[in-house]
Design goal:
Length: 244
């Protein structure tokens, strides 16, 4: 039974909600034996690119000119540089600075969340180096003293980084304590559970698998619904003056 064109996906100038029924896969020059779902890019006004890379066993992701962050959604990859080798399982992640030759090779069918952004240097601040880790070894902290809303910062909170990637985990019924409107933009992948996401003047039901882009100043709020926690992976630009 087809759905006569209905979808929860919607695209506005200040936000995009992209649900899996509208995902379209495409080859990219940096992917061998795999495809990408490009969620957001400069083509729709974002200051970064985010895609899900779906690799076959033995498939690879090679560098682009931009700095890159990857998070393993399912499967397992090896990250190889000229001087290091690191297997990354689910929840594993890596930050790779622009210009560092590297290859990510999938052990078996693997899905990676990939974020790429041109690095914005700052005078007197050295650019960051390669970082790897696993989300499970990052301590979480309560957002605004709400112990039902835990944040894990996957990248060091240092001025060298011009973006942050965090996970946010909401117990059922927990919500952001305020509607946010801020200069930073977001790329967000729902990892678990679901709830209601306010985006601009729309209140949207969302669930695991959905992608959301929020432009700078997009009004935003989330409340978790259901009987299990809701969790998302969220990008935001940071640490740079708005006029560069
Ligand atoms: O970091 C943030 O701006 C985060 N609280 N935003 C969000 O969850 N929509
Ligand atoms: Mn926000």
């Amino acid at each position: 039974m087809h759905n006569l064109g209905h979808t929860r996906s919607s695209n506005w100038s200040d936000h995009l909600l992209q649900t899996p029924d509208t995902f379209v896969r495409t080859p990219l020059p940096c992917i061998d034996r795999g495809l990408a779902i490009v969620h957001v890019s400069p083509a729709n006004g974002a200051g970064f690119t985010q895609y899900t890379a779906e690799l076959e066993a033995g498939g690879t992701l090679s560098p682009t000119p931009a700095q890159r962050f990857i998070y393993v959604l399912s499967g397992e990859v090896d990250l190889a540089t000229d001087s290091s080798f690191q297997p990354l399982a689910v929840g594993g992640y890596a930050y790779v600075p622009a210009g560092l030759p590297h290859t990510l090779t999938a052990h078996h069918a693997t899905r990676l969340a990939v974020i790429e952004k041109s690095y914005q240097p700052v005078d007197g601040v050295a650019a960051p180096g390669l970082q790897t880790g696993n989300e499970t070894s990052i301590p979480s902290s309560a957002l605004m003293n709400d112990t039902d809303l835990q944040v894990r910062m996957l990248l060091p909170d240092q001025p060298a980084f011009d973006f942050a990637v965090n996970t946010m985990t909401y117990q059922p019924g927990a919500s952001l304590s305020m509607a946010e409107i801020h200069v930073m933009e977001h790329g967000l992948l729902m990892l678990e559970g679901g709830g209601i996401y306010r985006l601009g003047d729309d209140w949207n039901p969302v669930k695991a698998g959905d992608f959301i882009w929020m432009a700078p100043y997009c009004p935003q709020w989330f409340g978790a619904l259901g009987k299990s926690p809701a969790k998302y992976l969220i990008y935001k630009n940071c640490n740079r003056h708005p006029i560069g």
